[in-house]
Write a structure and sequence with these properties.
The complex is a heterodimer of chains A (173) and B (187). With 173 residues, chain A is mainly β. Chain A has three helices and eleven strands; from the N terminus they run βαββββββββαββα. The chains are: A mainly beta (173), B mainly alpha (187).
Chain lengths: 173, 187
C-alpha cells in the first residue's frame, strides 16, 4: 500500500541548473536522491508527489551551489501488518515449506496436492518487515571496486499464505 | 533529512499508477516496443523530433517507474480506467460500515470471488450479510468487467515467447559447436 510521507531536507542545487525554474531543479535533485531508495523504518520511496515549501537558498563558502531547505511529500511503499497483497512467485527455496521439484506443495487433503510454482500469481498476508543496515563494511566495498557476495536486502518483507483465501489465486477462482 | 509526517495520506494503486504514467509521458520513456511505436506516432506530426527522455532526474526514477508500471499493469487494479468508475465504486463502498483501510484494499485488489472478499474484510461474515457481499462483487463486475479470457490468451502468448527464446538459445549453442568442429578439422 502506498502512503504520502512528509519530509524536510536540505537540497544542493548545482550551479548549472540555475537557469531552470527552481522547482524543476529541486524535483530533479530530490528524485536523484530518493527515487528507488529505502528509508530505514519508513519504506521504499517511489517518487516525489509535490513540493510543499521552498525556503530561500543559502550559500556555503567554497561552493558555487546553493542549498535550499525544502519540505516535500513523496510516495512511499509501506505495507502494514495484515495487509493482503498479490504478487508473482519469483523463486521457491527450502525455507518454510517442503520443496518438491522446486515447487512448494500444500497438502490440502490426502488426494489433492496443490503446487505453488514459480511465476504463479499468489496472494499473501504481510507478517513482518525487516529493515537491514547495509552500510559498506570496508573501504574497498564503499568505493564500489568489490561487490559483496551475499547482500541482504535493505528492506525485506515476511509474508504468509496460511489462511483461507490465500495462496495461488488460481486455487480460489 | 527530517521526516515530518510518516503517514500524511493513503494512496490507492490507481492514483500511484496515474502519477507514474504522467512521469513516463512527461519524459518520453519507453519500456516496450509498443511504447516506442506510440511515441513515434506522437511525434510524427510535430516539428520537434527530439525526444525529451534525457533528464536530470537520474536513472533510479526511470528504473522504478518501469518496474512499478509493469507490476501495476499485471495487477487487477489496472482495470480501473476512469476516474468516474473509481468514484462510483467508492461512493458505493461508503454505504457500508467499512474501515478506510478495508475500502482501500478492496479498491486496490478488486475482489471477484467471495473467498477473496472475506480475506480483505475482517470478520466479514459477522459485519456484512451475504447480500451486501454479493452487492459489492456485483458492482465491481459491473463497473470493471473482468478480462479473464484475454488474460489466458496473453499467458499462452508468453509461453510461446519463452519457447522461441529457448529454441533460439539452442540454435546459438549448436552454432558454437559447429564452429568449434570446423576449427578442429582445420587443425
Amino acid at each position: 500500500m502506498f502512503v504520502l510521507s512528509e519530509i524536510q531536507d536540505l537540497v544542493r542545487i548545482p550551479p548549472h541548473t540555475f537557469n531552470t525554474p527552481i522547482h524543476h531543479a529541486i524535483n530533479d535533485e530530490l528524485h536523484k536522491k530518493y527515487a528507488n531508495k529505502v528509508i530505514s523504518n519508513l519504506g521504499l520511496v517511489v517518487s516525489v508527489w509535490d513540493l510543499l515549501d521552498i525556503n530561500d537558498g543559502m550559500l556555503k563558502p567554497g561552493d558555487g551551489a546553493s542549498f535550499v531547505d525544502v519540505k516535500f511529500r513523496c510516495i512511499v511503499w509501506k505495507p502494514f501488518m495484515g495487509e493482503i497483497l498479490t504478487g508473482w512467485v519469483k523463486e521457491c527455496t527450502a525455507e518454510g515449506i517442503k520443496p518438491v521439484e522446486l515447487a512448494w506443495v500444500w497438502k490440502a487433503d490426502e488426494e489433492n496436492e496443490l503446487y505453488i510454482e514459480s511465476n504463479e500469481k499468489i496472494r499473501f498476508r504481510i507478517e513482518e518487515e525487516i529493515f537491514a543496515n547495509i552500510k559498506p563494511k570496508s573501504s574497498v566495498e564503499a568505493s564500489g571496486i568489490e561487490e559483496p557476495k551475499n547482500k541482504t536486502p535493505p528492506y525485506a518483507i515476511v509474508a504468509s499464505c496460511q489462511a483461507e483465501g490465500m495462496g495461488c489465486v488460481s486455487w480460489w477462482d | 533529512m527530517k521526516i515530518l509526517n510518516e503517514r500524511d495520506q493513503f494512496l490507492s494503486n490507481y492514483e500511484v499508477f496515474e502519477h507514474l504514467k504522467g512521469l513516463k509521458s512527461k519524459y518520453d520513456w519507453t519500456f516496450t516496443p509498443e511504447d516506442e511505436e506510440a511515441l513515434k506516432k506522437k511525434y510524427e506530426n510535430s516539428k520537434h523530433k527530439r525526444y525529451k527522455r534525457f533528464t536530470n532526474c537520474g536513472l533510479d526514477l526511470e528504473v522504478i517507474t518501469r518496474d512499478m508500471t509493469e507490476y501495476f499493469s499485471r495487477l487487477s487494479s489496472s482495470m480501473i480506467t476512469s476516474k468516474e468508475g473509481f468514484k462510483e465504486l467508492m461512493i458505493y463502498l461508503n454505504t457500508f460500515d467499512l474501515m478506510k483501510i478495508e475500502k482501500l484494499q478492496i479498491v486496490n485488489s478488486l475482489p471477484r470471488s467471495m473467498a477473496h472478499l472475506y480475506v480483505l474484510v475482517e470478520e466479514c461474515d459477522q459485519r456484512l450479510d451475504e447480500e451486501a457481499c454479493e452487492g459489492i462483487l456485483q458492482k465491481i463486475g459491473e463497473l470493471f468487467p473482468s478480462e479473464e479470457e484475454e488474460e489466458e490468451e496473453e499467458e499462452g502468448e508468453e509461453q510461446q515467447g519463452d519457447d522461441e527464446q529457448e529454441i533460439a538459445e539452442e540454435q546459438g549453442e549448436e552454432g558454437q559447436l559447429e564452429e568449434q568442429a570446423d576449427a578442429t578439422t582445420e587443425q
